[in-house]
Amino acid sequence: MHRFSEEEFTKFYIFWMESTLQLQRESSERFQLPFKGMVEVYDFTGIGFHQFHLDGLQMLSRVLKIGQDHYCENLSKAFMINAPSLFGMIWRVISPVLHENTRKKISITSGKAHLPPLLECVDVQSIPTFIGGQCCCPGGCVPL
């Protein structure tokens, strides 16, 4: 398993956020449409208790606080799908750093319960088949 420092994770997170902001600006200009926010999907299939450690969760909380402090309006909706039963415990560690408005944008589900609310945000053709959509593209479709 690859290990990384908090500094490396922080740099990656900021790079990722800035890169998505650039893609959003380019798409908005290209299609002459205002950007309405990013929809993020995190699939927890195959994740178990042994992959979560308190130190790692605390580091994740600190890095997510950067997003909360500097990119909070970038998120339209986040879906945590196929969440294991232990996710409630994990959520108690992570959620306190998030603003109430951000927490309201996050949906945590297990099984296929994620599909109806996800379809309210994303066309079925852009959702990968492995999470219930119709997209067969390698890595899934990213509508730009």
Give descriptors for this structure.
11% strand, alpha/beta, 144 residues, 42% helix
Average pLDDT number: 83
- The poorly predicted ranges are none
Rg computed from alpha carbons, rounded to a whole number of angstroms: 16 Å
Number of strands: 3
> What's the oligomerization state?
single chain
Strand order of the largest sheet: 1-2-3
| Number of discrete helical segments | 5
What does this entry look like structurally?
- This protein has five helices and three strands; from the N terminus they run αβαβααβα.
- With 144 residues, the protein is of the alpha/beta class.
- The termini are far apart.
- 7% of the residues are buried.
Write the layout of secondary structure elements.
Elements: H1 6-31, E1 38-43, H2 54-70, E2 75-81, H3 87-94, H4 100-104, E3 106-108, H5 115-119
Parallel strand pairs: 1-2, 2-3
Give the gist of this structure.
With 144 residues, this protein is an alpha/beta fold. It contains 5 helices and 3 strands; from the N terminus they run H-E-H-E-H-H-E-H.
